[in-house]
Structures are given as structure tokens and as C-alpha cells.
Design a protein that fits this description.
CATH architecture: Sandwich
Organism: Periconia macrospinosa
Keywords: Hydrolase, Signal
CATH topology: Jelly Rolls
Largest sheet: 10 strands, antiparallel
InterPro entries: GH131_N
Protein name: Glycoside hydrolase family 131 protein
GO molecular function: hydrolase activity
Strand content: 25-35%
Distance between the termini: 36 Å
Shape: globular
Mean pLDDT: 89
Order of helices and strands: HEEEEHEEEEEEEEEEEEEEEH
Bound molecules: 2-acetamido-2-deoxy-beta-D-glucopyranose
Length: 304
């Protein structure tokens, strides 16, 4: 189903030969970031310095995080289960118009992204992101998969490139389109020609989609592990070449988790201001257990 759904450039579909279950060792491995949300967090806590993500960004100009965050009634993700932490839901509405220092009012985008910034240790060296995502339990808050959404991405320090991005929905650019938008896909460096798509999976509703993303900023390599529901992660790609470290002043940068809804009828150079966004929207994504380890947890567990 996934391979029929998108006719994207270079595709390395996962093979069972890479399958390797990864035991979770979240307590013992050194972490470079822990974005798991304690049970006692309220919506209000997200506006304070206790928020492990940035309490001010990236959301609508006139919004605060307490208006964007909710706590959905869904089973814990695998990375939350062990820590007893809880998932969050982010919401896009017509008010989700971000005003950036460099670009101004991004009228054609809708944004509600949990932001990890000013944390060099998360965007250098050799690290592994773990995170889970799923649809809202409420069907009336579904995404509109006629649009392209970024669900997670690493943005360069100068904000002009994404080193990797996890997306869902119909790709904004016609050249990358297939018939169906109900597919998760992980792409490489935004300006690569052709842009690489390293992994795809059906965006099945009402189940967790769990990712382990190894990033080697020293050698410009990454590797993807994936599972659904409560299953352990399995490595689903070989070690992949990707330009994740940039060159000054693009190096380092920041990582986003949540929803960035792109317009239809625009392209990669004009989508901040051009193209169409329907009005009257309410759309949500559930995010669980965002954390980052030093090193590749998979290789660590192989040695144990
Ligand atoms: C949650 O509980 C912990 C431990 O008691 C406490 O340190 C923290 O301040 C509490 N956080 C909130 C947002 O209430
Ligand atoms: C935020 O509110 C101010 C004051 O009403 C308004 O001028 C501005 O355009 C709003 N920003 C956005 C992005 O809608
Ligand atoms: C992060 O790296 C930049 C560039 O090397 C440096 O200017 C900055 O001081 C570093 N920040 C921290 C907190 O180490
Ligand atoms: C989904 O998006 C398309 C393109 O913007 C729009 O035409 C359509 O009305 C939207 N569907 C819903 C249910 O909002
Ligand atoms: C890697 O990324 C940096 C910054 O985003 C860019 O300047 C550089 O040209 C890219 N290298 C390649 C080989 O694409
Ligand atoms: C994007 O669209 C604009 C306006 O139609 C056009 O001028 C520009 O060349 C397009 N860019 C790309 C990369 O397709």
C-alpha cells in the first residue's frame, strides 16, 4: 500500500534483513534531551520554563501554548510507558499563523510545533531521537491529507534548509505526487537534487507510529528504526548518507515536532505566502515520548 501511494524519487524500502528489535533502555542510556511530559503538567505548564520545549515557539502569532496543547485520552506510547509520562496533542486552527523574525507573517502556513532549540548537544555528535505520533482519537479533528504536513524536522541554523523531515499527506510539489496522502515518509536534505525519500509507511489511524532516528553529524549519516503500536523498534534502513550537518552558518540548528501544514498550489520556494489554505480548520496530531540519546541505541543494545 505504501509503495503504491507515492512515486517519490529515490526510495529505499525497508527489508526484513535489517530487522532487529531494539530493547528500550531509556533509564540507563545517557540522554541529550528528555521531552517526555510528566503527569502533573497542565496546559499552562507549557507556557512556563518547566516546558522541556520552547515555551514561546513555534505557534500562531497571537497564541500561547495553553491554547494549542491538549492531553488526549489514548494509550501511552512505548517511550512514555516506561517513564509514566503522558502524550500531548497539538492543534492547528486559522490562528496558527506564525510571524518569524526573518520572513514576517507566514500567511500560507499553519504551525503548531514543539521546538527544541539552543541545544547544541541535540544537533551535533552522534545521537538518536525517539518519538511517537498518531492521529487524534477524535475523527472530527483529523488532518486534511490533501495537504503536505511536516510532523518532525531538523531546521538549519539559518532557517533556510531542513536536513531531514518526516511528512504526511499529499506532497505539495506536483512532481513528487502519488494518488494517496495517507502515508508517512521521511525525507533528506531539502535542497538535494533529487530529494531523497528514505522510508515510507502507511499512516494507519488510531495506532502509534514509533520512530528511532540515528543522526551521525560527524559523518553525515542517519539510520531509521520504526514500529507501530506497542511493538519494539526495528531497524528499517541501512546507514544512509544525508547532509545533516551543513556548513557554517547553517550548522547546528533546531528540531521541531508537531504540525506544519503547507498550502496546496504552492512550491518549495514560495509556500510561506502563496497557495491555498482552507478556513475554519481544527486539526490535531498526538505526539508521545520525545527524547534523545547519546549514540545509536540500537548498536548499544547489540553489544549488551
Ligand atoms: C510535578 O511534580 C514534581 C515532583 O513533585 C515537581 O517537582 C514539579 O514542580 C511538578 N510540576 C508541575 C508542573 O506541577
Ligand atoms: C495578532 O493580533 C494583532 C492585533 O490584533 C494583529 O495586528 C495581527 O495581525 C495578529 N497576527 C496574526 C498573525 O494574525
Ligand atoms: C553552540 O554552538 C555555537 C556554534 O559553535 C556556539 O556559538 C554556542 O556558544 C554554542 N552554545 C552552547 C550553549 O554551547
Ligand atoms: C482539504 O483541503 C482541500 C485543499 O485545500 C480543500 O479543498 C478541502 O475542502 C479540504 N477538506 C476539508 C474536509 O476540509
Ligand atoms: C549541505 O547543507 C549545507 C547547508 O544547508 C549546504 O550549504 C551545502 O551545500 C549542502 N551540501 C550538499 C552536498 O548538498
Ligand atoms: C514557484 O512558483 C513561482 C510562481 O509560480 C515560480 O516563479 C517559481 O519559479 C517556482 N519555483 C519552483 C522551484 O518551482
Amino acid at each position: 500500500m505504501a509503495s503504491r501511494s507515492l512515486m517519490l524519487s529515490t526510495l529505499l524500502l525497508f527489508l526484513s534483513t535489517f530487522a532487529l528489535s531494539i530493547p528500550l533502555q531509556t533509564q540507563t542510556c545517557p540522554k541529550t534531551f528528555d521531552g517526555r511530559i510528566p503527569q502533573n503538567f497542565t496546559k499552562q505548564t507549557f507556557t512556563t520554563a518547566q516546558n522541556p520545549f520552547n515555551p514561546k515557539y513555534v505557534l500562531g502569532h497571537n497564541q500561547t501554548w495553553d491554547q494549542v496543547i491538549d492531553f488526549p485520552d489514548v494509550p501511552s506510547s512505548i517511550f512514555d510507558s516506561e517513564a509514566g509520562t503522558k502524550p500531548v496533542e497539538v492543534e492547528l486552527t486559522d490562528a496558527s499563523v506564525f510571524v518569524s523574525g526573518s520572513e514576517g507573517r507566514e500567511t500560507a502556513l499553519r504551525r503548531a510545533e514543539l521546538l527544541v532549540n539552543n541545544k547544541n548537544q541535540t544537533v551535533s555528535g552522534k545521537v538518536t531521537w525517539m518519538f511517537s505520533m498518531r492521529t487524534s482519537p477524535s475523527p472530527s479533528l483529523a488532518l486534511n491529507l490533501s495537504h503536505e504536513y511536516l510532523l518532525a524536522f531538523h531546521e538549519a541554523q539559518d532557517f533556510q534548509a531542513d536536513f531531514w523531515s518526516l511528512k504526511v499527506g499529499l506532497p505539495m510539489q506536483e512532481a513528487l505526487r502519488g494518488p494517496n496522502g495517507e502515508v508517512l515518509y521521511l525525507q533528506g536534505y531539502k535542497w538535494a537534487q533529487p530529494m531523497q525519500t528514505y522510508f515510507m509507511a502507511p499512516f494507519t489511524r488510531n495506532v502509534w507510529h514509533n520512530f528511532g532516528l540515528y543522526l551521525d553529524f560527524v559523518d553525515n549519516k542517519m539510520q531509521i528504526a520504526y514500529s507501530t503500536g506497542a511493538e519494539k523498534l526495528e531497524i528499517v534502513t541501512p546507514l544512509l548518507a544525508n547532509n545533516i550537518s551543513g556548513t557554517p552558518p547553517t550548522t547546528l540548528g533546531e528540531t521541531h515536532f508537531g504540525l506544519q501544514k503547507r498550502p496546496v498550489g504552492a512550491n518549495i520556494t514560495n509556500f510561506l505566502f502563496n497557495g491555498f489554505q482552507p478556513e475554519g480548520i481544527r486539526e490535531r496530531l498526538v505526539v508521545g515520548g520525545v527524547l534523545q540519546f547519546l549514540l545509536w541505541v540500537a548498536s548499544a543494545s547489540r553489544l549488551v
